[in-house]
Every structure is written in C-alpha cells, then in structure tokens.
Write a structure and sequence with these properties.
The protein is of the alpha/beta class and about 575 residues long. Helix content is about 40%, strand content about 15%. A ten-stranded mixed sheet has the order 12-21-20-19-18-17-16-13-14-15, with helices on both faces. Strands 3-2-11-9-8-7-4-5-6 form a nine-stranded mixed sheet, with helices on both faces. The chain is elongated. Its cofactor is Mg(2+); K(+).
C-alpha cells in the first residue's frame, strides 16, 4: 500500500481528472459515499445490526466496499461487493424493504456534518445526502458562510439546499454538539495550511469536547497530513476515512493516534497510479514484502542445504558492562536461521561469556585485558571477518580511543555487508564531515539508529528527527548511499534508491533494553542468508515486531516483554 503526501495526492487527483477524464464530481461523489458507508458501519456496530453498509444503495462500480482497514496493527481486506454480486430484480425489492425496516433504528441517530469551505467539505456534503437517504437525522454545520464554497463543493451545497437538509451556519445559529450521535469532520483536508484558524479552531474544540464519536474525512482536521504532527487544535477521530491513498501523517505518531482506525477507500483514482507518478513510500505489509521487495516470507529452506548455505555472521560487540547487548545480537542472528554465528568480544570478557549460548562460536578480538574494546582490534576483526558473510558492529561496544579510525578500517577494508548499531553509529556521528573522505563501500551498509542516534548522525535535535521521521531517514539514506532503519514506533526503512517503508508491527512493550540489539542480529542473520540490504532491513523489522507481538501474548502483557522473549518468539 502506497503512502502519499498532500502534494503527491494533489498531483494524482489532477492526473485522474485532467488526463483520465474522470470528473472531479465523480471522485467527490465516491468519496462522500465512502464516508457515509463507514458512518453506517459505525452505527450498525453500535445498534448490533449485522449489516452497516448502505445495502441496496451500494454502487458496485465505485467499489464502495473495497477498503483497506488499518487498525493500528493489522490491515485486513473487508468484504467486497463486485459487479458479479449485483442484486437481481427480486433482491432489489427485498433490499429496499430492508432499508425501510432499518429506518426506525437509523432515525434515532442524529449526525452533525461539519463542513469546511474546500473539497473536504464537499465530501462531507455528499455524505450528508447519503446518510439522509439512508434514514439518519442529519444536520449540516457550515464552518463559514456557505457562499464561500467554490466549484464542486458549491454544487454539493446547492443539492443540500434543494433537498431541504437542515443547515446551521457556525457563529450565526445556535449549536449544541453534545446531543450528537456522531460527528463527521469534513472541515479541513489535504489543502490545510498551518494550524486551523477561526472559526475552524473553535468548532474543532467543540467537536472534541462533545464526547460523540468523530469520523474524519481524509485526515483529522488540524493534522499535518505529511508528517503526522498535530496542530492546536486537532480533531481526535474514532475513524478516519482516508480517500484514495494512505496519507503519511495518518501512520506517523502522534497523527496515528489522532486518526483512530484508518480506513482507506477507493474513490476512482487507479491504485497503480502512485507508482507511475513516482511515489516510493509504502506501508510495510506482507503484500509489500512479497510484491515490492520480492521476499520469500515463508522462508523456505533448500532440502539439501547445510550450515554453509545459510551464511556465517560475525558480531563485534559486548564489553564488560554491556556484554548482554552483544550476546542478544548474536543469539538473534542464530534464531533467525543463520548457519553459523561467531561472537567477537574483548579478550578480558571471553572467560565470562563462555557457555552463555553453546550454539555460538566465540572469538577474542581485542587484545585489551580489561574487557573493553580498543583500536588495535581492527586488524584481528578484519581477519576474522574475511571468512564471514556479514559483519555486525555496535551492540555493547562502548567508545574507546581511536575508535573513528578503527571503524573506518572496517568500513573501507571489509568487503561484505556491514550492519552498524549503537556505539558504532555514535562513532560514525563523531566522524562528522570526515566521513566524506571514507572510501565508498561496494557492499551494503545497514544503519539501525534510534531517534537519538539519528539526531547525532544528522547533527540536529531528537525532537526535530521525530517531527518528520520519514523525510530525515530518506534523505540520509540517499545522500550516504546506505540502508537506514530509523527505529521507534512505526519504524522507517529507507533505501539508497529513495524507496522507503513504514512498519506497523510491534508495540510499545518493545521499548525495552536489548530489543534494538535483537533487531541488529536479525538483520545481520537475514543478510547472511542471502537477502539484500532492503529485504533484510524491511523483513527484519517486520519480523522483529511480529515476534514482539507473539511474546506479548505469551507474557500476557506487552509491558512484560523483555528482549530475550523476542528472540524466543522468533
Ligand atoms: N484525493 C482526491 O483526489 C480527492 C479529494 N477530495 C477531497 O478534497 C480535499 C482537499 O480539498 P482542498 O479544497 O484542496 O482543501 P481542503 O478542503 O482541505 O480545505 C482547504 C480550504 O480551507 C482553507 N484553509 C486552509 N488551511 C486552513 C487553516 N489552517 N485554517 C482555516 N482554513 C484553512 C483554504 O483556504 C481552503 O479554502 C481532500 O482532503 C479530500 O477530502 C475530493 O473531494 C475527491 C478527490
Ligand atoms: K477532515
């Protein structure tokens, strides 16, 4: 599933109207219709009816029931009505009767449709008409004078007037939203610039305070559709009916929380158009892994394979006070299916870690006897790495004198793929502009920073990174020619060719010491098994999250999950 910015959506919108000749009014009709349909589902869920869709009104050609429902964690395809299921004549009569039967229930529903002056408002007006037709009590609330509406939205305004649907103008007429069964937020969509101005701001505050469930059209009004940042105020939606393509801001926090359940509805804009228009950002799902990244998600192993077939990972990490980090990465690399894993530790640490995981091979790489890494170990590491398929550096490494030169040697002289995490990233950050002089690598580099490490790499604040995670991750990946995994809720995987993915697996319980080390081991293990950097990073992040979810079920609460549980759940 593609994810777009407001600007990209406008281009796709224009292309559909100008080049494909699908009228803007048709798109608006489909949009409003989809919103009405989701409102009906919400009402049906509340009153226990088995069918909340618009029944006999369903227009099969606009694919009104073809939705991707995105409930924070999972995406499921909901029921589809295809042309093959067009009701015959007798069924039409039955459907009409069923609708009449439903009126008694729907009439108890009083929905307020808050309408802005742009096309988002136009979508809301179409929804108001369909909900009225379905038997709901509907009141349209114009945020500003209806005279200010233009184009398709003005046409919808005239239809509403002709139908005699009750209308209120905010600020002119009395309004009490506290009695609402529900509210449709069609105030501001992708055309929003900056924080909501008056009277939108007051209306948003009243809607939030009403306690009624809010259904947002396209995006919650007040949300930055590109970054997920919340303006003050911002609608807190129960459901967001996103039109045509998933907007980035609905997936990134804090926007993801303000949006509630996100339902992406087809409105007539061809789903494949995004690729043709150069959109390179996708939600990371099983389908994305299979179709966009060509990953064998079933992880078949060749029947006559041997441990050499599945690669050999070398993990360089762990020091006296942080030996566990290296161990977790090495164990995760094993559990994800690597043929062999060697864990290189400072010599002084070696006696203490013998036997901690009997499946691991151990190597003493740093001559220092104090259990800490030192710059002299580069030569030994390079020799060890020669016979290994992947080198993962960083978990539990610590900082030491000469570490920049040490990392530079690994970067320049190790010819296989390199995974850098934790202090290896801090070393990279401290290299600063000197990095430009490092010899470009022919093999892949995967960096796995958390937001703090990303901030150091970019020389900006963590808050700045978090304000637009997707953009920062993509820019760094492109300019440095690396695959970058920006960790945190909704991890971003950015590839050097500009493609990027946003993950939705996992949960807040995975914010626990060592979880990142486990991810490093998983990605290194997948690289050793022959996946390329984009595949290993994306699939690794996805599996890491799924394993975290499994671990939460085993432990009966997300908060009880520790890093070792994620490895076991793999
Ligand atoms: N995806 C599609 O192809 C379709 C989308 N539709 C809907 O159209 C909106 C986008 O419509 P647009 O007219 O461009 O913008 P908005 O409705 O979001 O509103 C712009 C409107 O509001 C004023 N404004 C802008 N910023 C602010 C602010 N901070 N405070 C107050 N007022 C503001 C501005 O002056 C404009 O007048 C999209 O989201 C979909 O819902 C189509 O209907 C179908 C095709
Ligand atoms: K909206």
């Amino acid at each position: 599933m593609y994810m777009v910015t407001a600007d990209e959506m406008r281009q796709l919108d224009r292309y559909t109207i100008d080049k494909l000749g699908i009228p803007a009014l048709t798109l608006m009709e489909n949009a409003g219709r989809a919103v009405a349909d989701e409102v009906m589902k919400l009402c049906a869920g509340r009153c226990g009816s088995s069918n909340g869709s618009l029944g006999g009104h369903t227009n099969p050609t606009c694919g009104a029931d073809d939705a991707d429902v995105f409930r924070g964690q999972a995406i499921e395809k909901v029921a589809q009505t295809g042309p093959g299921e067009l009701p015959g004549h007798g069924e039409v009569i039955r459907t009409e009767l069923r609708n009449h039967g439903r009126h008694a229930v729907w009439q108890r529903e009083h929905w307020y449709i808050l309408v802005g002056k742009g096309n988002n408002g136009g979508d809301g007006l179409v929804a108001a008409r369909h909900l009225t037709d379905a038997g709901l009590r509907v009141t349209v609330v114009y945020a500003a004078s209806p005279d200010t509406l233009r184009g398709e939205a003005a046409a919808q305004r005239d239809v509403i007037a002709a139908l005699g649907i009750p209308v209120i103008v905010y600020g002119r007429d009395a309004l009490d939203l506290r009695g609402a069964s529900g509210i449709v937020d069609a105030l501001l969509g992708t055309g929003t610039q900056g924080p909501p101005r008056e009277p939108y701001a007051s209306l948003i505050r009243e809607a939030n305070a009403s306690g009624a469930p809010l259904v947002s059209v396209d995006v919650p009004s007040g949300l930055d559709a590109d970054t997920g940042a919340l303006h003050e105020p911002c609608i807190r939606a129960r459901v967001t009916v996103c039109l045509a393509y998933l907007k980035r801001g609905l997936v990134q926090y804090p926007g993801a929380e303000a949006a509630g359940d996100v339902v992406v509805r087809y409105i007539g804009i061809p789903p494949g158009l995004a690729r043709e228009c150069g959109v390179q950002l996708r939600l990371l799902t099983r389908d994305t892994l299979r179709e966009a990244l060509n990953v064998d998600v079933s992880r078949r192993r060749v029947p006559d394979g041997h441990k050499g077939t599945y690669g050999h990972v070398l993990v360089a990490g762990g020091s006296l006070r942080m030996s566990g980090a290296g161990l977790l990465a090495a164990r995760a690399a094993l559990r994800i299916g690597s043929g062999l894993v060697t864990w290189a530790v400072p010599e002084g640490l070696l006696p203490h870690v013998i036997g901690t995981a009997p499946e691991l091979m151990l190597a003493a790489a740093a001559t220092g006897r104090d259990g800490e890494w030192n710059a002299d170990s580069a030569e030994e590491l390079l020799q060890l790495a020669q016979a290994r398929d992947v080198l993962a550096v960083g978990p539990g490494l610590g900082r030491f004198t000469g570490d920049t030169g040490w990392l530079r040697r690994l970067w320049e002289e190790y010819e296989g793929p390199l995974v850098l995490d934790a202090d290896a990233l801090n070393i990279l950050a401290s290299a600063g502009p000197e990095l430009d002089a490092w010899k470009p690598r022919s093999a892949a580099v995967v960096l796995t920073p958390h937001p703090g490490e990303m901030a150091r790499l970019l020389g900006i604040s963590t808050a700045e990174v978090q304000r637009d995670r997707i953009t920062h991750a993509r820019q760094y990946a492109r300019t440095r020619g690396v695959t970058l995994v920006l960790k945190g809720a909704r991890t971003v995987i950015a590839c050097p060719d500009g493609t990027a993915y946003v993950n939705t697996t996992g949960h807040a319980g995975m914010a626990t010491g060592g979880a990142g080390d486990v991810l490093t081991g998983i990605i290194a293990g997948l690289l050793a098994q022959g996946l390329n950097a984009s595949q290993a990073a994306a699939f690794g992040v996805y599996l890491h999250g799924v394993a975290g979810e499994t671990a939460a079920r085993h432990r009966q609460h997300p908060a009880a999950v520790v890093a070792g549980d994620i490895i076991e759940a793999l």
